[in-house]
Amino acid sequence: MGELQAEPLTSSPPDQRELEEAASVFGVETTYWDIWHREHRASVPALTAILESLGVDVGTNASLGGAREKRERLTWQYPLAPMVRLMRDQPQPEAPVSLPHEQADAVAALRIRLEDGSSTSILVELSKIPVSEEAVFAGSRFVRKRIRLPNDLPLGYHDLSIEIGGAASPPARLIVCPSQAYRPAWLEGSRAAGLAVSLYGIRSGRNWGCGDTSDLKALIDWVADRAAASFIALNPLHAIPNRQPFNTSPYLPNSIFYRNPIYLDLEQIAEFRSSERARALLESAAVQSELGALRSSELVEYERVYRLKLRFLKLLFRSFLKEWAQDTPRARELRNYIEAEGELLHRFAVHEALDEAIHRRCADVWNWRSWPEPYQDPQSAAVQEFAKKHWPSVLFHKYVQWQLDLQLQAAQEHARARGLTVGLYHDLALATDRFGSDLWAHREFFISGCRVGAPPDDFSPKGQDWAFPPPNAERHYQDGYRLFAESVRRNCRHGGALRIDHVMRFFRLYWIPGGMDATEGTYVRDRHEDLLGILALESVRQKVILIGEDLGTVPDEVRQALSRFGILSYRLLYFEQDRAGRFRRPEEYPRDALVSATTHDLPTLAGFWVGRDIEARRDAGLLPDDGSYYRMRHERALQKQKLLDLLIELRLLPDWYSRNAGEIPELTGELHNAIVGFLASTPSKLMLLNQEDLLKQTEQQNLPGSTAEYPNWRRKMKAAVEELWTSPEVQAFTTMFRGWLDRTGRLNVPGRS
Questions:
Q1: What percentage of the chain exceeds 90 in pLDDT?
Q2: Distance from C-alpha of 753 to C-alpha of 750, rounded to nearest angstrom
Q3: Taking each helix axis from N to C terminus, what angle separates 302-326 and 329-361, rounded to the nearest 10 degrees?
Q4: Burial letters 663-682, b for 16+ CB under 10 A, else e
């Protein structure tokens, strides 16, 4: 315990040492290690820009010292912090209380209001509690004491307040978390497997040019009957603008809270079944011609699919408005959904309605940053007036999200009814589009002046600039993480597993200052213990297994924390190599993990073998020079040889492959079988095979760093849903996959819980 001393005032610009000291206080890392184990030191311009984006005055030593003292003083300003996190298994749960020295021996009344509405009060004699910390600001002394709380507080989100001398403090959010995320009992002694699909890319003879929830049900039936896997992993289903080529990434959504209407099967909506007009329009020559073109197109045509579905959805909604006016039971179902979703849904729907109305009047305005200024603030009088005047348009978007929720609920229920022990595996994106509805509706929860990305690595030598703003960690903390909890809760809904994209975000994110490129950034830390606790809480409440995508340069302490919270690691064949480049043997893979060959941003197995990803990068102009191209081709040949050597050593391939490695230009059936068998043989609790790898497709879904240069997020499945049952090639691949699941104890066992 000691007194804080102010630094001497000076008007000189701060040097790097003083900037680095301030950076440390605000969570900015001044050095980091890259994937090649080289240390990088953040530059003065980078530190200056990042601190400025956090609201720090970096003009002088004095201003930096003042900013540091102000941040420290905030932690003592009120008796209770904005939020207090407790772990359910803590032997002695405590809440820290900060007090002026004069109140250190007062009597305090502590009140806990549980989320079920009940409450309890505790009378505390502060004189009997020792001081744990002290601080002095401008001659005023403060003390901190830790007050014992009941041991039996239920999991959940509660309120905590304290009253001293008749004055009540601002309440804190009291979050009681489990020590670990949900793990079904059967998973502790068993292993399971799943198939990953991009829902938008499912082909069928009945959809509207894009996979939908009925295609998903058909896929569930096939997986249950033929593949005998335990789950289907989906791409993020978040709402996106559906505009090509810049606004089709499911990992750069318009909103992470709500979903994309293109996944709706409109013919399953009640209003469609009762609407003669909708059915007649569907049978018209023009619509049938468009449907035929969309179904037969090589790639998903987002804008055309969305335009067609939107036309029908509005027709169905006009029919529903009659029920709304009559307050029928179906209308009351929507009212209940709207009430449960609250302000989050309302702001999303208002944004969507505004976006549509303004673009209709001004065709060259594509996002809210170009709207008339009064409409850029979700709380402005102009926005409130618009929502009131155009209530049917706002209600329409709430109706659409309701239908999506119902159809995804039905899909998960169907999966569980067909015996899939996990069912649907959802994916929570890291990003949110800086031009999207989440930024419009919740701007204060994001930082301006910086973007998120990744430092250079083997697959992106120039680094990656993901072009979206970092989260405002301090604002989330001050708000008790309400928005964060909602994002997790909504994406756990109607699933049995949730993948967290770039899980290292909860520990640190790579920030790129405005005006700089991806090689000039550095990492900024977050309050990971709080975030992981809330993740575990939502996981336990909804019985959802958590998988953290922990690829890249991940410090040991990150994986240790994830393991402590029961979050499965995410291991890819391509990356599981030691420093000498040796591929790890199956038994070297961790048990508490999901194992797969690849992911959407990396080459498929067939693409890896022929170097299709390297060719695509060169074609897109993403390689610095021809030297990089030839170096990558050479390194790929070495990687392939090392993988062959391991598979031969494990007796998954005959020796012939080693002697004739140069004569294997593509992924042969024998090699395909060996790699799938290798993955299934690992001790990792979950195994995931992408449908592109099951069906030996060469093209990957996304080429990082590209937009119009590559058809990202538009690739369709090689086989249509109907062909999954009849194609001899698909049946051969499926028999091979199922055989490995059977031999390695991963075969789905219906009835496990």
A1: 83
A2: 9
A3: 130
A4: eeeebeeebbbbbbbbbbbb
Helices (H), 590-687: 605-610, 612-619, 626-649, 656-659, 669-681
Q: How far is CA 697 from CA 317, 652, 692, 716, 734, in A?
A: 40, 22, 5, 10, 15
Task: Enter the DSSP assignment of 80.
Answer: S
The Cα 234–Cα 240 span in angstroms is: 16
Task: Give the CA dihedral 713, 719, 722, 726, nearest 10 degrees.
Answer: -160
- Sequence-distant (6+) residues with CB within 8 A of 146 are 94, 95, 96, 97, 129, 132
Distance CA 203, CA 715 (A): 10
Query: How far apart (Å, rounded) are the C-alpha atoms in residues 216 and 238?
Result: 16
Closest CA to 336 of 406, 389, 242, 388: 406
DSSP-derived secondary structure letter, 573:
G
Per DSSP, the three-state class of 95 is strand
Beta-sheet pairing, 593-596 with 569-572 = parallel
Measured between alpha carbons, how far is 731 from 736 in angstroms, rounded to an integer?
9
The string of pLDDT tens digits covering residues 26-81 is: 999 999 988 888 889 999 999 999 999 999 999 888 888 888 889 999 999 899 99
pLDDT at 3 over 50: no
Distance from C-alpha of 204 to C-alpha of 214, rounded to nearest angstrom: 10
Question: Tens digits of per-residue pLDDT, 682-712?
Answer: 999 999 999 999 999 999 999 988 889 999 9
What residue type is 12 in one-letter code?
Answer: S
pLDDT, tens digit, 9 for 90 and up, residues 375-397: 999 999 999 999 999 999 999 99
CB 531 within 8 A of CB 509: no
Which one, of 267, 212, 263, lies nearest residue 242 by Cα?
A: 263
d(CA 573, CA 551): 11
Residue 24, classed as helix, strand or coil, is helix
Mean pLDDT of the region 224-240: 97
Task: Please answer whether residues 711 and 705 qualify as being in contact, where contact means their C-beta atoms are separated by less than 8 angstroms.
Answer: no
A 10 A CB-CB count for 348 gives 25
Residue type, 623: L
Evaluate whether 356 touches 393 at the Cβ level (below 8 Å).
yes
Whole-angstrom Cα distance, residue 602 to residue 705?
Answer: 12
The number of beta carbons lying within 10 Å of the beta carbon of residue 274 is 12
Tokens 């033929």 belong to 226
Tell me if 258 sits within 8 A of 348, measured CB to CB.
yes
Work out the average pLDDT over 180-189. 94
**Of 689, 563, 607, which is closest to residue 231 (Cα–Cα)?**
689
Tokens 């993988």 sit on residue: 643
Phi, psi of 131 (to 5 degrees): -80, 130
E strand map for 301-359: none
| Torsion, Cα of 35, 563, 686, 718 (10° steps) | -40
* pLDDT value of position 581: 87
The pTM assigned to this predicted structure is: 0.95
CA distance 77 to 169: 10
Residue 513, beta-bridge partner list: 450
Which DSSP letter does residue 206 get? Answer: S
Helix (H, G, I), strand (E, B) or coil at 630: helix
Question: Amino acid letter at 310?
Answer: L
